[in-house]
């Protein structure tokens, strides 16, 4: 059988009239990442290598909410998180609270391969990154004008929200839609090689205006990322919702325990989550691909060895 | 009217040679905490309230590895984590990297009830704690003499040690060699001879008289862990899970629990395969924990309770409305 790959740059309220200057660079990056992933799979690289290198590329792109271009905390800082999982061994690596590590996904992989632990966070993770010589840059490297703007708008919206004195349910944090930029971002990649080995990786800057120290679904195995010998999943959307619904694990669980196909499992999981909160990409050991979302759009791309490929937003 | 049920644990993986006195002390603590939960259930408290108050009690006692009595990081400090989940609505809250919060499980609940998020960690969590006015103490409050001694041994053995409660003869000097004190090297837990491994994490699961389930888990984590290491206890779906069908809290080798999303899987096989609670618990522990040692406690909305472990023993207690009440350590 042939390989398959799917990747995403975040699901959210992306309006169909997204201006070209915002749309073009993202589509270009999706295309670049897809090509890189495909080339690596054709060269016989392991799925773990493939998902890592694709997510690194997405992290380096300032237009997606991961690595450079991460959204900002309420303090105007960057706190990045990521996780990676090897479907064959079920090994996993997770990191949170990174502030200077250029490629969080690579640190997650080092945690998986070089420590007896699975998850390192904040100061401990930063120290670990230095011990292992990962590339680090000053905070300013990660912060973009766009994100400073997003943060200002979010703070303004919350201020306005309070002025209206409408009792909002506390979890309904209002995030304004600044020209359709996907506010609910994250990047991720899943891949299966010719031998049916699977891997998944997800990386993010989190939620705009999040509390310092807030951890979302991305580094939580079973929520934002999951891989076993049957399928690999990377999710994106409202972190709090993805955690409670154990989105990534549920896609695999429906296949394993209820015998559903990937398509049915993935659709059921996204349909059951509150509207506008979830999107995911998934592949199986048989080379099936699914990319459902219940938001307006999701930046995504996929390819299978027999030649089919797709790059899409809505 | 549903029937209530409650289960608690104080960790999985126990030395078969644990001194009688230690066993009695542990069982006494388990009985006391179980009774507190039972009394609260009889007074019609909600499942969520009960799991919180029982875990607070377990955190406050230095015997088990959570709150006071937590295992120490490589730096000799305490970093605690916890999570709580309300089966009704599947709301959840989690915290990691706490150093001064007296009751981590209560802060996890506040994250769930009073913040827009589900999980807060380290400095951000500590700041939130102060904003919320929870009880704050110095890090030294959580550190016990025993654990200081254990950390020394762990460093000498240069390996991760889960926890240690048994004073080894001759272990009062730094140069005490771990190897020479280990009588039985055949039984292991996370690469350590079980005689110098002792279980970690505490937890509680409850179904109340309205049929609602809740779960809570709390821990200091691994002895000699790297600062910043997060285990399974604060991870929803791994160490803790609750939905309208059931509630689960796990303990044991954290990495194994995460890989197998143990808590979620119990509920998933009930939901998707139609297994009942005991079948689900048996299946998950038998089939899902490949190469890992762990245990779990679970309740269902029907008032059933189940405990299972593939490790050598698990400190636990269960009680149901029928009058059944039992604490135990071994199989």
From TrEMBL, chain A:
<keyword id="KW-0378">Hydrolase</keyword>
<dbReference type="GO" id="GO:0008798">
    <property type="term" value="F:beta-aspartyl-peptidase activity"/>
</dbReference>
<feature type="binding site">
    <location>
        <begin position="236"/>
        <end position="239"/>
    </location>
    <ligand>
        <name>substrate</name>
    </ligand>
</feature>
<dbReference type="GO" id="GO:0004067">
    <property type="term" value="F:asparaginase activity"/>
</dbReference>
<feature type="active site" description="Nucleophile">
    <location>
        <position position="186"/>
    </location>
</feature>
<dbReference type="GO" id="GO:0006508">
    <property type="term" value="P:proteolysis"/>
</dbReference>
<dbReference type="InterPro" id="IPR029055">
    <property type="entry name" value="Ntn_hydrolases_N"/>
</dbReference>
<feature type="site" description="Cleavage; by autolysis">
    <location>
        <begin position="185"/>
        <end position="186"/>
    </location>
</feature>
<protein>
    <recommendedName>
        <fullName>beta-aspartyl-peptidase</fullName>
        <ecNumber>3.4.19.5</ecNumber>
    </recommendedName>
</protein>
<feature type="binding site">
    <location>
        <begin position="214"/>
        <end position="217"/>
    </location>
    <ligand>
        <name>substrate</name>
    </ligand>
</feature>
<keyword id="KW-0068">Autocatalytic cleavage</keyword>
<keyword id="KW-0645">Protease</keyword>
<comment type="subunit">
    <text>Heterotetramer of two alpha and two beta chains arranged as a dimer of alpha/beta heterodimers.</text>
</comment>
<dbReference type="Pfam" id="PF01112">
    <property type="entry name" value="Asparaginase_2"/>
</dbReference>
<dbReference type="InterPro" id="IPR000246">
    <property type="entry name" value="Peptidase_T2"/>
</dbReference>
TrEMBL record, chain B:
<dbReference type="Pfam" id="PF01112">
    <property type="entry name" value="Asparaginase_2"/>
</dbReference>
<keyword id="KW-0378">Hydrolase</keyword>
<keyword id="KW-0068">Autocatalytic cleavage</keyword>
<feature type="site" description="Cleavage; by autolysis">
    <location>
        <begin position="200"/>
        <end position="201"/>
    </location>
</feature>
<dbReference type="GO" id="GO:0006508">
    <property type="term" value="P:proteolysis"/>
</dbReference>
<comment type="subunit">
    <text>Heterotetramer of two alpha and two beta chains arranged as a dimer of alpha/beta heterodimers.</text>
</comment>
<dbReference type="GO" id="GO:0008798">
    <property type="term" value="F:beta-aspartyl-peptidase activity"/>
</dbReference>
<feature type="binding site">
    <location>
        <begin position="229"/>
        <end position="232"/>
    </location>
    <ligand>
        <name>substrate</name>
    </ligand>
</feature>
<dbReference type="InterPro" id="IPR000246">
    <property type="entry name" value="Peptidase_T2"/>
</dbReference>
<dbReference type="GO" id="GO:0004067">
    <property type="term" value="F:asparaginase activity"/>
</dbReference>
<protein>
    <recommendedName>
        <fullName>beta-aspartyl-peptidase</fullName>
        <ecNumber>3.4.19.5</ecNumber>
    </recommendedName>
</protein>
<dbReference type="InterPro" id="IPR029055">
    <property type="entry name" value="Ntn_hydrolases_N"/>
</dbReference>
<feature type="binding site">
    <location>
        <begin position="251"/>
        <end position="254"/>
    </location>
    <ligand>
        <name>substrate</name>
    </ligand>
</feature>
<feature type="active site" description="Nucleophile">
    <location>
        <position position="201"/>
    </location>
</feature>
<keyword id="KW-0645">Protease</keyword>
């Amino acid at each position: 059988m042939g390989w398959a790959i799917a990747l995403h740059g975040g699901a959210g309220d992306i309006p169909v009239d997204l201006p070209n200057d915002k749309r073009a660079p993202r589509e270009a990056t999706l295309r670049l990442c897809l090509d890189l992933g495909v080339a690596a799979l054709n060269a016989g690289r392991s799925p773990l290598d493939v998902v890592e290198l694709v997510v690194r590329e997405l992290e380096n792109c300032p237009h997606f909410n991961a690595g450079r271009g991460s959204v900002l905390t309420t303090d105007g800082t960057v706190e990045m998180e990521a996780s990676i999982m090897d479907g064959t061994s079920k090994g996993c690596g997770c990191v949170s609270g990174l502030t200077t590590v250029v490629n969080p996904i690579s640190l997650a992989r080092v945690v998986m391969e070089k420590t007896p632990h699975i998850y390192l966070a904040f100061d401990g993770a930063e120290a670990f990154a230095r011990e292992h010589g990962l590339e680090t840059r000053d905070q300013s490297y990660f912060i973009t004008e766009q994100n400073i703007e997003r943060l200002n708008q979010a703070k303004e919206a919350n201020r306005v929200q309070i002025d209206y004195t409408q009792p909002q349910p506390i979890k309904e944090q209002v995030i304004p839609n600044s020209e359709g930029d996907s506010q609910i971002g994250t990047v991720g990649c899943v891949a299966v090689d010719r031998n049916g080995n699977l891997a998944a990786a997800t990386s993010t800057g989190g939620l705009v205006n999040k509390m310092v120290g807030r951890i979302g679904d991305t580094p939580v195995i079973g929520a934002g990322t999951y891989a076993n010998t049957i399928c690999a999943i990377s999710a994106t959307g409202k972190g709090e919702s993805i955690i409670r619904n154990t989105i990534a694990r549920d896609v695999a669980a429906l296949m394993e325990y209820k015998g559903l196909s990937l398509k049915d499992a993935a659709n059921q999981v996204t349909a059951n989550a509150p509207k506008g909160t979830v999107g995911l990409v998934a592949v199986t050991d048989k080379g099936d691909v699914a990319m459902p979302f219940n938001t307006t759009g999701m930046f995504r791309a996929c390819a299978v060895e027999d030649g089919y490929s797709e790059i899409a937003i809505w | 009217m549903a029937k209530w049920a409650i289960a608690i644990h104080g960790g999985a993986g126990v030395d078969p040679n644990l001194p009688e006195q230690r066993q009695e002390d542990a069982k006494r603590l388990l009985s006391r905490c179980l009774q507190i939960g039972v009394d609260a259930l009889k007074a019609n408290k909600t499942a969520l309230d009960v799991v919180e108050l029982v875990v607070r009690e377990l955190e406050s006692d230095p015997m088990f590895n959570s709150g006071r009595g937590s295992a120490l990081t490589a730096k000799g400090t305490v970093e605690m984590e916890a999570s709580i989940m309300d089966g009704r609505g599947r709301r959840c809250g989690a915290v990691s990297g706490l150093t001064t919060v007296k009751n981590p499980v209560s802060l996890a609940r506040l994250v769930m009830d009073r913040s827009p998020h589900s999980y807060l960690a380290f400095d951000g969590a500590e700041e939130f704690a102060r904003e919320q006015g929870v009880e704050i103490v110095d890090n030294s409050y959580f550190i016990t003499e025993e654990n200081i001694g254990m950390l020394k041994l762990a460093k000498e053995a240069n390996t991760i040690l889960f926890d240690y409660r048994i004073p080894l003869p001759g272990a009062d000097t730094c140069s005490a060699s771990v190897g020479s004190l280990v009588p039985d090297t055949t039984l292991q837990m996370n690469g350590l001879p079980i005689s110098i491994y002792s279980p970690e994490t505490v937890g509680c699961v409850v179904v109340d008289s309205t049929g609602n389930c809740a779960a809570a888990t709390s821990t200091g984590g691994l002895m000699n862990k790297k600062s910043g290491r997060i285990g399974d206890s604060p991870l929803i779906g791994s160490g803790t899970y609750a939905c309208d069908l059931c509630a689960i809290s796990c303990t044991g080798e954290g990495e194994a629990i995460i890989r197998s999303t143990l808590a979620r899987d119990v509920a998933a096989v009930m939901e998707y395969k139609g297994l009942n609670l005991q079948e689900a618990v048996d299946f998950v522990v038998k089939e899902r924990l490949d190469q890992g040692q762990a245990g779990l406690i679970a309740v269902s909305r029907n008032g059933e309770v189940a405990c299972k472990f593939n490790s050598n023993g698990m400190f636990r207690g269960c009680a149901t409305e029928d009058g059944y009440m039992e604490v135990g350590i071994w199989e």
